[in-house]
Amino acid sequence: MKKNKERRINGRTFVVLLGIVLLIVGCVTNPLTGKSTMALIHNNQLLPLAFAEYDEFLREHTVITGTDDAAMVERVGKRLANASQRWLASKGQEHYLDDYRWEYKLVQDDQVNAWCMPGGKIVVYTGILPVTKTEEGLAVVLGHELSHALLNHGQQNMSAGILQQVGQVAVMVGAQAAGLSEDGQTLVQLAYILGSTFIGTLPFSRSNESEADQYGLYLMSIAGYNPDAAVPFWERMSAMAGGSGPEWLSTHPSHPTRIKQLQGWNAEAKKLAAQFGVTFR
Length: 281
Fold this sequence. Notes:
It contains 9 helices and 6 strands; from the N terminus they run αββαβαβββαααααα. The longest helix has about 40 residues, at about 180-220. The chain has a 4-stranded mixed sheet, with helices on both faces. The chain has a two-stranded antiparallel ribbon with strand order 1-2. The N and C termini lie far apart (about 75 Å). By secondary structure, it is of the alpha+beta class.
C-alpha cells in the first residue's frame, strides 16, 4: 500500500512539475504589447492547421466576388494588413508577419460576425454589413479581428486549453492519492472544471477581447480610419443585441464596458496614428 501511495504522489508531482515547465518554456513576447504570453503550440504548427481549415471553410461556403461589398472587404483588409506591417516595422519587427498568408473573403451568411484566423485568414459574413454600414464601420470590426491574430490570441487560447487539461490530470491524480471515492473524485474534478472556467477561462477570454478592441482601434487609426467610428458601431451592436446575461458569465465584455473602454482609448489611438503621419479632424 505504501508503494502504491508513493507512486501516486510521484505521479501527482510529475504532473505539477510538467505544468510548471510548460509555463516556463512555453512563453513568447508579443512585439506589439511587450507582454510574455503562453505559447505551448508554436506558429510553425498552428499556421498550417489554420490555413487548411480556412481552405476547407471556403470550399463549404459561398464566397462572394465581383461586388462592391467584396471589394470593400478586400480594400479594408489590405489597408489594415499594411498598417500592421508598418507598425511592426517601427518596432524593429519587420519580419514578424513573414509567415502570414493574408486573404480577405466575403461569405454569404446571415450571421452578424467576422473573424481572422492565425496567419491572416479573414472572413466577413454578409450579415454584419448592415451593422457596420460604412467602410470605417467595417474597419472597426476587421481591426479587432486582425488584432486577435497579431496578438496571437488563438495560440494563447489553445495553450490555455492544454494547461487546463494538465491541471485536470493533476487534480485527478491528487484526488486518487488522497484516497477519495469515485464519487468524490468526480466532484473534485467537476469543481476544478467549473472553477478554472469561471476564474480562469472566461476572464482570460474577456481580457483578450478587450485587448483586441484596444489594438484594433490603434490599428484602424494607423490605417487612416477614424477611430471615432468605433463607439457608434458598438452602440448599433448593443441596440441589436438587446438584453444580455451577466458579464462574468460571458466570453466577451458587455457592450457598455466595450463602449466605455473604446472612449478611453480614442485619444491614444489618434496620437499613435499621428506618429505615422495620419491625422483626423
